[in-house]
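Board notes (copied after class):
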Amino acid sequence: MKALLSLALALLAAVPVQAAEDHAERDRIKAERAALDARFTEQERACRARFAVTDCVQRAQRERNAALAALRRQERVLNDAERKRRAADRQQELDERNAPEKRARDEQQRRLAVAERMEREARAAEKARKKAEDDANKAARAPREPRAAGAAPGPQGSARTPGTPKAHGPSPEQAAKNRATFEARLRDAEEHSAKLRERVAKRKKPAASDLPIPQ
């Protein structure tokens, strides 16, 4: 950035110098053209004092035309350089004018990308919340057989002790525990989802100072 700024300042400083040099060159060409015209007029006057007037005048005319052609080529070089310099100045002006708009567009695109990412995160959090709710509901509905106090667990696949009543659901203590676990997970998921939605809303609404500058 500093290198570009230094280059721009150097170019701006060189513009007046180049313009002064071009003006001096044009003055020189103009003076040489006036000198050629004066010299041709003098040569033509001298030719008329001789016998071969036509040949003398034509020779002087050819010399004058060759010198004028050289001066015209020099003028074309100056004109081309000036035209290129003006085109570069116009392009630089356009670049400087469009720079704030480009920055605003890039910032807007970045904000949209962040908002879309946060929306995906919010959807994922909502999906996780629903899954936690479903899992908690399944755990609350799952039947569990209460084990007799002081009874050792029997071998796997062994028959149940006769007279043991078949359990129809979890104990009141286990059901309360399952319900508390489910409600805690549900609150956590809802809080996370609400925070994500709030962040997405803030990202989607750009501040007035961030809007593109009207031209």
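Comment from the instructor: The chain has a mean pLDDT of 75. The CA atoms of residues 86 and 145 lie 92 Å apart.
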